[in-house]
Write a structure and sequence with these properties.
4 helices; 9 strands; alpha+beta; 5-stranded antiparallel sheet; single chain; Bactericidal permeability-increasing protein, domain 1; 259 residues; 4-stranded mixed sheet
Length: 259
């Protein structure tokens, strides 16, 4: 029996059921002999579902918990300058383009291009001058960024069903600009924090966003498994949807065999 489904949560949902599984599950010498259900998704169906990928990415950004960022730098005449970025949150987000490619016997490669994200928060900084004068200031900030994402989704077989692994996730920053509120702040301050914070901020954004995408991938894999189980259930009659073999990835379709 061939089965295909549609779900509003986008590419991650159905596709995650059909990616390469690891050797964590044992299928026996003749796995296809015990196949009861075959699920196949064609490439056109995958491309159709990809239209909803932007919603998943937006959910990942908005659900990510960004930690406070602190640091310290020594500056001539000013002494040590300490800073902290707090209350970082998404203030605006748009996704321009998303593409899906089926890599045979590998994974589903999802490329999201031109993600424009705005973050806001509070910058607190202080420094001890040459005459031990301590000054502390706080100013609201906004960060404007342009990002591309590459997500290579795979699944591992655990307890005879798939477990999503989208940890192979990369963020490429094309723009990262720090805007401080008002025009009264000295030019060196903006230059200092723009240059020094950029690396740390990129690392934090990549870590938190990719972790959230991986979490959503695992959650949606479980959701799809339950959806399929309910689809083939008839009152008290249930079917065993345990994987019977390693799912297949071809250039034009995805296929998995279930008991």
């Amino acid at each position: 029996m061939f089965w295909a489904g549609r779900m509003s949560l986008g590419t991650f949902g159905i596709l995650l059921m059909l990616v390469h599984t690891s050797a964590a599950c044992e299928f026996g010498p003749f796995p296809y002999a015990i196949t009861g259900i075959v699920c196949r998704m064609t490439k056109p169906a995958a491309l159709l579902l990809n239209q909803q990928t932007a919603q998943v990415i937006q959910a990942a950004f908005r659900s990510a918990k960004f930690p406070n960022i602190t640091g310290e730098r020594s500056m001539r005449l000013l002494g040590k300058v300490a800073y902290g970025l707090t209350n970082i949150q998404v203030n605006g987000l748009s996704v321009e383009q998303s593409e899906v490619e089926l890599k045979e016997d590998d994974a589903i490669h999802i490329t999201i291009k031109n993600v424009t994200a705005f973050f806001k928060g509070t910058l607190t900084y202080g420094y001890a001058g040459a005459w031990f004068l301590r000054l502390f200031h706080s100013v609201d900030f906004e960060i404007e960024s342009s990002i591309d994402l590459q997500i290579n989704t795979k699944l591992m077989c655990q307890k005879d069903q798939v477990a999503a692994d989208a940890s192979d996730c990369y963020l490429t920053f094309h723009k990262l600009m720090l805007h401080l509120q008002g025009d009264k702040e000295p030019g060196w301050l903006k230059q200092l924090f723009t240059d020094f914070i950029s690396f740390t901020l990129k690392f934090v954004l990549k870590s938190e966003v990719c972790n959230e995408i991986n979490f959503l991938a695992q959650m949606l894999a479980n959701f799809v498994h339950d959806l399929a189980a309910n689809f083939v259930q008839d009152e008290d009659i249930r079917l065993d949807l345990s994987l019977a073999s390693v799912p297949l990835i071809r250039a034009n379709y995805l296929e998995s065999h279930h008991k």
